[in-house]
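Q: Two folds, back to back.
A: First:
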Amino acid sequence: MIASRAGRATGWRALLVLGLALTCAAAGAADVAAPVLGYRVVATYPHDVGAFTQGLLLHDGALYESLGGYGESRLRRVELASGRVLAERALDRRLFAEGLALADGRLYQLTWRAGVGFVYDAQTFAPLGRFRYPGEGWGLTFDGQALVLSDGTATLRFLDPVRLTEVRRVEVRDGERPVPMLNELEWIEGEVWANVWQTDRIARIDPRSGTVVAWIDLGGLLPLPYRRPDTDVLNGIAWDAQQRRVLVTGKRWPKLFAIELPPR
């Protein structure tokens, strides 16, 4: 823990300098337009090592998680401090669960290739309905007005949460380059945050233009001693508005991390 405000400022300044240096080094080779920001881990929590995390959110102090895999897909409510499962609902074995969002007391859960999503009561997990969408479902979040859906491309779709029909879409770009493989999504203070599949990076996206305004590189976040042969990629972003921190984990990770970012 940093003992003083001056110490904290110095620590953030060092992280910002490091992030800018990494950005400059990468710009020539990869044409990266958005800066890479630093972060620090402020807490670590247990996470079910068997959970193939597809969607993650925090509500009333509890984690809600969508787990994927044929025959393994389910919806969960989890106690953050202990990782204990508080409630669970399994999906049909023929379905592969994906992204998860909360809006007006309802949970919305996508599936990968079936083109169908499900609506549940957030407290009881009782089914309230289903909806259809073309193409694949990957990530999902709620921006206060619309559900935001990713499908593995560089496109984000915005859906009316009542009619569950598309109202607009935007292509995500870093400078002039499209950013495909957008996966799990989270709405954080006016931005869409997106895991980029098969990478350790999170894109912070302006939802109006689709521009990537910053990157967060979480490479090395999970220490090597915790990695197993079946440990998969970084995936899972949840915003803790009360403590102003971001919770992140991965598919079959034994840990969930709370991180803080430099002040804007």
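A: Second:
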Amino acid sequence: MLRINEIGWNYSHPSGMIYVDQYDEPGSYFLGLFQSPTVLVTDGKEIEVRPKGMVLFPPGSKRCFYPKERDTDPDGLWSNDFIKFHDDGDGAAEILGMITPMVPFYPERTEHISRVIKELSEIERNYIKTPEVRRLINNRLEYILLFIVVNSRDHMKTQLINVNAAVVRKIKQTRTYMLENPGQAWNISKLAEMAGVSQSYFSRLYKKIFGTTPMKDLNERRIEKAKYYFSCTVLSIKEVAYKTGFKDEYYFIHAFKAATGTTPGNYCKLHQNNDTSNVLYINEKDL
């Protein structure tokens, strides 16, 4: 779960401060949304962060930045929003891994992110941290990270996607169900219908969240399931192909070899040549 260590909304540094140069406690991330022109120093290089730019500092990194043009800020102040947080397990490691650390990025509608940070700062100040409140904080933090991942501008992107947290959760639930039932006849149309979105939107957001396409994700799961069947049952190649969703035995053999480097038959022989005295073989036709 993601937990906040410290948070600041519309935080104005003291007028005498001209530099931030510090390490955070172990395990803490620092996410900054800079409202003023700022210079980031990383690996001895200076990088300009334009207003509305964001930077993620990973655990153990040094936060080092300073105002570019103090006299352009209101009242001569240097302002930003920030969240210091840590992930104590089963959190957003996969999402955090999609954000390049120590590199400025510019999500669409940063004013929306700023409002969510304001909401979180009010929750932190005014609410007792019951399990329900902690889950709310985790969900809002995860929402911010997903919003950043999907809406960040880069030179490869030609279209921005609006993210709804409920839609993201539905897509994640759809993926879980698909991977738990790889033998079903899946296609993009069916998956998008389950998630309640259009096919094109489902495919684009799925790729952004999971880093792969739905069909490639499914194919990898089917191959892993097939390897399990070959290792722990006496099903034939044709039966395994059917149970893992490959209705064509020959297509299954081709896909299995492409994924593993060997044919299903050779995979079975390799397994049979190993010591299998501790393996219980099951004929699933008898279950």
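Q: And?
A: The chain is about 45% helix and 20% strand.
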